[in-house]
Amino acid sequence: MIKFNYPDGSHCYRALHTAHAVFRNDDGKLIARAEKADRTGMYEFEITGFELLSTGIVYD
Questions:
Q1: How far is C-alpha 31 from the chain's CA centre?
Q2: Digitized pLDDT (tens) for each residue of the chain, 60 residues in all
Q3: C-alpha angle 48/30/47, rounded to 5°?
């Protein structure tokens, strides 16, 4: 799993295989690219950071 942290302080969890890229755009913002839930393509969103979560560990 991967945990994406959003600029507003919230976060979301995604399966690692749906995350395709993390990069900085021309404005220097950190951007994540992930597969849409319906598998019809990709979308990009701004993040402040991310964590790769290990199996069997409880994160709170």
A1: 8
A2: 899 999 999 999 998 889 999 999 999 999 999 999 898 999 999 999 999 988 777 766
A3: 35
Query: What type of residue sits at position 22?
Result: V
- Residue given tokens 């991310």 in the structure block: 50
Taking a C-beta distance cutoff of 8 angstroms, is the pair 41, 49 a contact?
A: no
The torsion region of residue 28 among left (phi > 0), alpha (psi -120 to 50) and beta comes to: left
What are the two backbone dihedrals, phi and then psi, of residue 2, each rounded to the nearest 5 degrees? -130, 140
User: Which tokens hold the place of 24?
Assistant: 């900085």
CA distance 48 to 41: 23
